[in-house]
Amino acid sequence: MTPISPTSEFGPEMLKSLEFCEITAVSGEGISTAPVKPAVYAFFSADGKPLLAAVTGNLRATLGRRLAPKVGLTPDRKASTAADGVGAIPASPAPGALVDYSGIVKSISYLKVCSSFWGNWIYSLVVRKLFPRDHQQLIGWKPAWFLSLQPDAPTPVFSLSTKIAQNAQVYGPLAGRGCGQNLIQELTDLFDLCRYEEILRQSPNGRPCAYKEMGKCPAPCDGSVAMTDYRTQLRQAAEVLEQWDHSDRGGIVQELENAMRAAALRMDFRLAGKLRDKCEQLRGLYAAGADYLVPINRWGALVLAPGNTGRWIEPFVASVQGVWRLEQVRTADFVQQPRVIMGRWRETADACFHEGKPASRVAQHVPAAAAEDIVSLLCYHQFRTRDTGLYIPRRQLADNDTAITRVIDWLSTGPRGEVNEGLSSDQMPSAARLSSGVEFNGEIDMPGM
Hints:
By secondary structure, this protein is an alpha+beta fold. The chain has helices spanning 13-16, 28-31, 59-66, 75-82, 116-130, 135-139, 177-191, 197-200, 210-213, 227-242, 250-265, 269-286, 331-336, 338-355, 371-383, 400-412, 431-436; strands at residues 21-23, 39-44, 50-56, 107-112, 145-149, 158-161, 169-174, 294-295, 300-306, 312-319, 322-326, 329-330, 362-367, 390-393.
């Protein structure tokens, strides 16, 4: 195996370390050496420029189809595609564009992958490097959303973004923008936060809105409360999010209930009623759909993907620092020794989460170019209905028995390994397909192993 380096443009250390294989004889004989296995692959022209990146469930069959001469092209289009180098071919052709690769591909680089999750992760890194301008469109899944707060900013507010803000308290992931907007609204109602950022910017000379008259806002905009006191109020709201991934979410609710009872004993029924309403709102907030929400520095998961014909388990650890691929485990071995193997996984995951470096049982570590990339990919796999993997959030790994039960339940469904063909840099999904969150399949689904 030789490192993938047909051009210096494609040679970051994180990809060189993956040891892509290279095919330089792009013909029937060369294609016959390609494995009948799932793989991420890339086409390059004679001068080393990238033409295509894709993931497939059967590399040999896909290369035979992709590199077969195309019929029906106009002479002009045929001439442009037959030239050495990229020629008139755009780096990312329009969806469904017919391109004759047979005359322009001079080398192929590929890496065999063991699962759909690993294949998609490697593919996302490849297209980020080869096609940086079109990276988000080419990966074919929606970005995750994050909630952030900068309490010490001149105008402190909760905000939503698909990027992880620097120097801010960031919480995520959220399944979508709507989920985040609902969460901000619930926090605003629960803690009587300012609803109009443009008025808050004018503090302390702003004109208060109607929510001050209703007693639903402390009105830092007109100086009714000092901005330092309002920041404290915001931090209390953020504390709810800090506790989101804890098993004892009832701690904050219990504090409110104790305060409610104390107010009732003092005959302050107005305050007691207000605290009761806050308890009910908080219970509703925790029951909302943001099941995977955590402070982003505590985000992570143990990922289990079905291996070859279901006889193997492919384990991974994912965090904002990247993905660690662990040693394969036989399904039968896990069934016989679930506590031993889960203990190893938890120990390795804990080392990856806290130390951020490979442990002894890690076969490979591929860092994230951007933390949002791996979070979005994991959300895509967690939320799609056809996924065959198992994704155990970091907080659930704290309970060994719960984690083992989830794995046994998953194995009882008979997951089978597969890598779907279709993610490809010359088959960009439409905006409608991207926004829908439906899995993009450029051509056909192909079983992996």
